[in-house]
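Tutorial handout. Part one gives the primary structure; part two gives the three-dimensional structure as tokens.
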Amino acid sequence: MSQYKIEAGTGQHIGDRAEQQDRTALFAAPKAPGYMLAVLADGMGNQGALAAEQVINTAKQIFERFSPLTDTVEDTLHTIAKEADTVIKLSAMSSDKKPHSTLVLLIITPENSAIWAHVGDSRLYYFEGPNCVKRTTDHTYFEQLKAENKLDEIKAKDPLLVNLLVNVLGSSSDYTLAINRRDGLKIGDSFLLCSDGLWRYFNEAELGAAVAMNTPRKASEMLIAKARERAVNGKADNCTLAIVKLVKVPKEVKDYTVKKMRRAV
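Part two.
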């Protein structure tokens, strides 16, 4: 069992947009003590905010039913993505709009494991202390060309390729859910989920230092403030993040647990 406790927090800023189309949330599993879910969605297009909200609601409903006795974490992540995609497509049909959404999911287990999944260009970073050891790969045309070794010098300088998504929820084409995991989690490990309105203003070293050296709440405040400072006036996107940190259990909590166990004996 884990010897750490989880500290988590979220933060948002509307940027210079007329509407906040990002959503993020943290959930516990009523049927699975010790499991937690972090979810982030960046809505796009007409009714993008509705699409992101549908992602959050879908994730909440499915995680409330999750039980390790009958479900696997990977299957649960797939179910969340599939049902969210379906709901977004149905709402598009009924409203004659074309909403889409990115998706990032992270589940922490009491067996010291983290399993995450994503669709689109919202990211998850995994840090050991301040060091980034893993991050998701954006589902953009730029990254697709890069993976296929088709990214020439001219295309590499085209900012439109970086923002052109090839994989989102709610699209007429099928989405692809990328899943990853990390076992053996330990004190000092942390995770950052964020929309492109945040990550585009930082390198990995800056993000890692901010998360490692501060509480989730303080880190969220600092990163959002710095993103606002670095954004081009009048053109900043919605900015959203969630931070999950594994920290040492306070000594007094351990002592209390030991004493309580002794009394029980």
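Part three, for discussion. The longest helix spans residues 73-95. The first strand starts at residue 4 and ends at 13.
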